[in-house]
Predict the structure.
Amino acid sequence: MMYVRLPLSLRDVEDLLHERDIDISHETVRFRGKCLGPLFAAEIRRKRVRKMRAHSNWQWHLDQVLVKINGETHISS
């Protein structure tokens, strides 16, 4: 999580964890970041969307719809 959220190198994260008596290599940090990074990113995106929707001025607009009925294309705007 530290590597994803903070601008730290893999070796910096390794040093921080070593200070907390966790012996782990920078390669393990890289591997875990590769596996868990997308999950963290998805959760961060989900939280941002929730915050946007909480604001009263958040709206969704539909510009144009194309519908094909019996082979004819109808445009709704």
